[in-house]
Amino acid sequence: MKLDITKVTPFVGQDTISSYQVRATEALKTLEEGTCPGNDFLGWLHLPSSLTPEFLNEIKAVAQTLRQECEAVVVAGIGGSYLGAKAVIEALSNSFQWLQDKSGNPTILFAGNNIGEDYLFELTEYLKGKRFGVINISKSGTTTETALAFRLLKKQCEQQRGKETARKVIVAITDARRGAARTCADKEGYKSFIIPDNVGGRFSVLTPVGLLPIAVAGFDIDQLVRGAQQMEAAGTLATQYAATRYALYQEGKKIEILANYQPKLHFMAEWWKQLYGESEGKDGKGIFPASVDLTTDLHSMGQWIQEGERTIFETVISVETPEHTLLFPADEENLDGLNFLACRRVDEVNKMAELGTQLAHVDGGVPNIHISIERLDAYNLGQLIYFFELACGLYCQLLGVNAFNQPGVEAYKKNMFALLGKPGYEKETEAIKARLA
Ligand code: PA5
């Protein structure tokens, strides 16, 4: 993986970035020593190197059972209990696999990340008559969206496959002791994995939270972990990214747009937004993490990026080599005037679009951070994941916020429970009804 910040220095001096990088390196020490805010949630820091082959084999064995027993597996989870697996599976899958379905892999579906009635209805319809299994993921074991979806899926799985088989194809990934998901898993005798106490949801993709669904989808979790291990051993890139973001934020760049030129990276950006948004957006501070898929969004958000309010900077994830080769054909008539591209790779056009856009955006006052990975494979994704996690932990210390809590997420839950009349929320129900009257 390479990080290039040369298109930032016209906006913020290299000296400024270097001085913040010194602070980021000090922040790395406090992470290592466990003396930073939220230090009971630092289990992710050396997670890659702590994963043993035995543990990975256990995950692969459970994945194999689900692959054998199920034509579809529904992953129930939200936020950090969903986005990492979704991001990696999308990035590594054939874009049209869901149409072809000839890979021999079970179809991986996601639920519990919304409360859309139509979504859940259509999902349960799709699953009718199918040999499906469920991976129920919730660290707290009490998250409403996930618990609601799981209740529906558990019932349907038991009805369709019988209680005994359902027990074999439902897996829980949750806390060791607390929460309804743990109680249910223990009572029903489900196979379960533990989310370590000291790893928060958005830092949990390299625990069974991400690893099991990724393995069920048929991807190489050893390579994913190896990539993360490599990045764990080399912290410099993360300190540079953290320092650059912080320098830009100090210059009034309040929005970071993560851009990709490969549609398969769409959900990596969603994962990244959650990691950064939930970690740094507190105490009235924090960069707003946004994302675009390019060149698609050059025809929607491109105008804003080029000429809108100059409070943004852009971070591009670029994939050096595509997995496949496709050349534009020559055409005798050349009615579309595209013969100048005949026999050239699609990726060459994409790369020139990327370079042209980068130069245009920099000319338009948008600083540009450039991250490139060699290919879109499990190893490189592992690197990228750990890089972003570490940089997030470092940057939040520069900003002076606790990266590992999310007190703001409770506000909507309190109101929702009060509105739904959840037992224990009587006072809040009264207050909210009075407010709405
Ligand atoms: O990053 C986080 O901590 C959150 O996004 C959680 O992952 C999310 O709220 C889901 O929580 P849980 O796993 O407890 O259901």
Please, how many domains? 2
What is the global morphology? globular
Structural class: alpha/beta
Give the mean pLDDT. 97
Counted by DSSP, the helix tally is: 17
Highest-level CATH class of the largest domain: Alpha Beta
Look at the structure and name the CATH superfamily of the largest domain: Glucose-6-phosphate isomerase like protein, domain 1
Helix/strand order: EHHHEHHEHEHEHEHHHEHEHEHEHHH
- Cα distance, first to last residue? 56 Å
Please give the number of β-strands: 10
Arrangement of strands in the largest sheet: 1-10-9-7-8
Q: Main sheet, how many strands, which sense, barrel?
A: 5 strands, mixed
Q: pLDDT under 50 segments (min length 5)?
A: none
Question: Could you please describe the fold and organization of this structure?
Answer:
The protein folds into two domains: 2-35 and 231-399, Glucose-6-phosphate isomerase like protein, domain 1 (Rossmann fold, 3-Layer(aba) Sandwich); 47-219, Glucose-6-phosphate isomerase like protein, domain 1 (Rossmann fold). By secondary structure, it is an alpha/beta fold. It has helices at residues 14-33, 47-50, 53-69, 83-92, 97-100, 117-127, 144-169, 180-188, 208-216, 221-232, 236-250, 266-280, 302-307, 346-363, 378-399, 410-420, 426-436, and strands at 2-7, 72-76, 107-111, 132-138, 170-174, 191-194, 255-260, 288-293, 312-319, 368-373. The longest helix is centred in the middle third of the chain and has 26 residues, at 144-169. The strands form two sheets. A five-stranded mixed β-sheet has the order 1-10-9-7-8, with helices on both faces. Strands 3-2-4-5-6 form a five-stranded parallel β-sheet, sandwiched between helices. Strand 7 (255-260), helix 12 and strand 8 form a beta-alpha-beta unit. It is 50% helix and 13% strand.
